[in-house]
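Students often ask why we bother encoding 3D structure as a string. The short answer is that it lets us treat folding as translation between two languages. Here is a chain of 404 residues written in the first language.
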Amino acid sequence: MNAETAWAEAMKFENRPNPYPYFDELRKTPVAKVAEKTYVVTGYRELLALAHDPRISSDITRSPSGFGGEAPQPEPGSEHVQAYGQDASIIVSDPPDHDRARRQVMRHFAPPHSPDLIPSMEPFVVRLANDLLDQASARGSTRLDVVEDFAYPIPVAVICKILGVPIEDEPKFHAWIFDFMAGTDLGPEGDTEEGQVLAEKGRVSTAALTDYLGDLVRSYAKTPGEGLLSKLLHDDGPDGPMSVPETTANALLLLVAGHDSTVNTITNCVMTLLRNPGSWDLVRQRPELIPRTIEEVQRLQSAVQFFPSRSATDEIEIGGTVIPAGSAVHLIYAAANRDPRRFDKPNRFDPLREDNEHFGWGSGIHTCMGGPLARLEVRAPALLISRLVSWVDDLWCRAIGAGV
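And here it is in the second language, the structure alphabet:
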């Protein structure tokens, strides 16, 4: 199987549950051309080098089309673009704009200026996780939908609290974000009738979500309030305040991340432990292993599988391949995280794994800003679940039972 075929197969919806055999094929050529002016990077060493290479641009306006597509964009003349502009968020911008915007966000989000914000969320997360489990128990059900009843409400409540987004609006923006994500993740199916319908819904919902956030940001610009968005707009630090359009773009980024990647990380942790009952019991008996377990799940089941919108600003030779200037460069985190040149027995889940510098939180200047927060949001629920649930594994049955 050549690289082009392996990449096309990995992107098909039917293969999304298990793309790893195709990533194995791609890693035979760690940097491979898979379409005209489109290259995928699957080797650990090669991806690490390119993630830190200033010749790799994250500016979305420079990214040529290729497999993976781009986020659904509203029509250029639409009302919300006229109102709020088309400023890029941190994740799709380059230095110096990226560095300045990241400093502004981190000033109100993490040490050294805001060392208490993330730790202060832990009691809120623990209380919410307990409440959700109590609600499930009060319903008299013996079943729990891990996503809808547990994994989803926690990070959404946290990100709304941090940003200053009204949680009562969640049903509305949840639907928009769902359509936004569905309209982004099309792959080869993007040219089909179904794909075009999804893309159009994504464009409409992107406009609605941006309108909503833009209105919220403008209200904070006029009247300061609680949360990160207001702090960005009224920042008196060395970089000054962030503009309304740029704050709106970054609000969209952070709200979507709170709906998607962190939810998936919690779910992936539960799923992986359920598939490995021996590890579940180990973590239950040794809760100090939960942080290491989270990192291993992120390596094995990366919540963000790859980053599609980067491009080469100059010719780059790496891994025996020459990437021409102007080419799209897709960094396949999920493939590099299973590179046998870097990880011993890479397809095995090992909560005791020590040398585990994976790409689950990204790498380089675009390393996930919310990584420490996401770890907290996953750690507390995982600890509660591990205490409440145990494996029944005897001669007659093998199942999940109530813990003590």
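Translate back mentally: The longest helix spans residues 193-222. Keep this in mind for the problem set.
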